[in-house]
Structure formats: structure tokens, C-alpha cells
Amino acid sequence: MPASSFPLLGRTALVTGVSRRRGIGYAVARKLASLGASVFAHHFRPHDLDLPWGGDDLDAVRAGIREVLHEDAVAADMSADLSDPSTIAPLLDAAGALTGGLDLLVCNHAKSGDDGGILDMTPERLDAFWQINTRSTLLLTSEFARRVAATEHAARRRPGDRVRGGGPFAEPLGRVFWMTSGQVHGPMRGEVAYATSKAALAGATATVAGELLDLGIVLNTIDPGPVNTGYMDPDTTDRSLDALEDHLASTPFGRFGRPEDPAELIGWLSTASGAWVVGQVLTSDGGFGIS
Q: The CATH number of the domain where 248 resides is what?
């Protein structure tokens, strides 16, 4: 196949939350691999085992990524509990060691389960979602930016101070993707801690994207809409599906999202064709939220 079919050949991606073949992270890892990228997959299977939809065979996950790799690309993986900040630097070290550099970071990991409504909130519950969904994403992004831009932390900046990154840049030096949720489109009843942790990422996107852009790094945040990764299957759901099924019947496409849907968007944004999209919170839900 022509080189144009593999626009990410020579690039290396770290994708977090790649532990289930039904998951968005797995679809993203396969999409980037199919575009030529070498892929380092992060996973933390103990989290999945505590949920109704359960864990997956990690060997099958690895095989699924490798089967779409370009012959000149490589793949590897690592388990890490991202609620522990001490795991972040070793994860980026391992990902960078795969090929000697790192070009893309997809922060797809998230805590699910053990949430509740506003009357159920405790400091421990809020902290658990914040640590995994928000804090670790910000720390991963910070470490990634230091490595890609080859810059060290300088004196603390005052509000309004710009990062000195040495631009202009002919093309992005790196790309970062965050994942948010549909909390801006309507209530997420019974998921207050999750919605709060994801809303923080959406709300901080422009601020962090502005700083990263000074370093030549592009950040965008993806809202994938309701993607059925197993939690909307009747036999493994953690919620009532009655209202969702009724709404689904009224939508133009008549289906929930598939993991491949947001993966296609992330794949395109990772190429030169998507380089002009910067600092956006992009909803990819097939019109689900407005139908």
C-alpha cells in the first residue's frame, strides 16, 4: 500500500485504558495502528473485574492491536493504577522507550462504578473519581509535554504569562486527546462524581490547550456520546435501560455509538489533515444529544 495510506508511520502513541475489546481505548489503539503508528497500550484490568461487564483477555487485546500494525511498527503494553501518581512517569518512560520517542497521548482511562447522586457524595467518592479521571490526565499531559517539547519546569508562572516554546512550528510536535462525557448536554443522574471529574477536563481544555500550543502541542477533548462498551447490554448493565431504549428509537440512526465512532475522529485528528483543529471539545454522538 502507498505511504499515504499510513500517515502515522514513524509516530508512536500512548493510549490509556486499553483493556477490553469492547472499549473505546481498544478501538483507538487499533485505529492509530492501522494508520501506521506504533502503539503502547496502558491497562488496569482489576478495575474492569469489579464492574458488571467484567474484564477481558489481555492476550486477545494485544493480538487485536498487533493484527493491524504496519510491518515497520511495534506495540507493547503495561499495567498501571493511575490513581497513584507515582505510576505516571514510569508509564511514559516505558511508552517512550518503545521507539525512542512519543508523539501522541490519548487519555482514555476512566473510573466507572461506585458513583451516586448528590445525596450520596462523600469526600472519598469524589476524590476517587478526581484522582483517576482528572488528576492523572493532567499529570500525564504535563509529563508528556515536558518530554515532547524537551522543556523543564521553570519558575511558577503568573496568571496570563505565556509559555515560551520556540515557535512558530511547521507542524505539531505532539498531540494530546482528553475524553469527556455528555454532562453539558443534559443531566447524568446518579453519576455526580463521574460527571464532575469529566466536566473539569472539558472546562480546562481551552486553558491547557493554549499553554500546550505555545509548545507546539495540540490538545483536543472528545465527547464520544453514549457508546455501548458493554454497560448498555441488558445482561451486564449497571442502570435501567428503559428510558434509553425509548430515546434510541426516536434517533435518526437508531443506535448507540460504537467504539469505532470516536476512534475514527481521533484517528483523523492525529493526522496532518486534522492539525488545524485545536483546543476544542468535540462531540461525536451521531446527533444523539440533539435528536
A: 3.40.50.720
